[in-house]
Amino acid sequence: MNRLDRIFGGERKVLVAYLCMGDPSIEESIDLAQACVRAGADVLELGVPFSDPIADGPVIARASQRSIAAGGGLQATLRAARVIRAAAPDVGLVLFGYYNPLLARGESRAVGEAAEAGIDALLVVDLPAEEGDSLRAAASVRGLGIVPLLAPTSSADRVAAARFSMAHAPAPFVYYVSVMGVTGSNALQAASAGARAGALATAMGRPVVVGFGIDSREKARDAARQAAGVVVGTALVRTIELGATPADRRSAVERLIRDLRAGVDEA
Prior knowledge:
This protein is α/β, with parallel strands linked by helices. 51% of the residues lie in helices and 14% in strands. The chain is built from twelve helices and nine strands. The chain has helices spanning 3-8, 26-39, 58-69, 74-87, 99-105, 107-116, 133-141, 156-165, 190-204, 217-224, 234-242, 246-266; strands at 14-20, 43-47, 92-97, 121-124, 145-146, 149-150, 174-177, 208-211, 229-232. Strand 7 (174-177), helix 9 and strand 8 (208-211) form a beta-alpha-beta unit. Helix 5 (99-105) packs across helix 6 (107-116).
């Protein structure tokens, strides 16, 4: 079984933590990823910085810019993944980003390098369910899942297309984009988002996590009651951005993850 299948098949709700790798540096991103695991994150989304992050709000967009300026990118993220995997053999690792870096690297090569680095699945935010057959085939050969995304506006046809895409590359879970717009929205109605995620899980036959807007223990608890778990992204990246020193950033990240872990466990 894939690590992610084991994680989502366990008894507790799942906490997923997103990091923009390379912000403020690759070395510190590795340290912060390990801090997330210590504090209770089950899955890490290792974000590949991208120059045109159309799905991301200003907090993650700034992090991408800082990372790129510091030399971050796909290769650096995979280098970090190897270190994180060696230190945390049981954590789920998702390579999270946009399609262009994978295409530029070469789909088969990128997928192969991801698998060798210990990545369990890919999440490509701008890859529609109807496209990417060659990437899905390459991922399937290497045992990597591709995580589909669904949103409040996803029609029955879009849900069916996402379900069909899973036949070409197994999806260990589904990411429910709980609000319209970019990352960092504060419009999340956590309980209703969790209910929608629960309904989608039945339709998709896979666990569904709620992302976009999870920034407190209460929201994590309310969303996770009917969902398989939650994703924290912008709140975590903002915490890193506001930290004055590496020690400050590490402590703040651990506090946030512990708080969200408590909320998820209460669900």
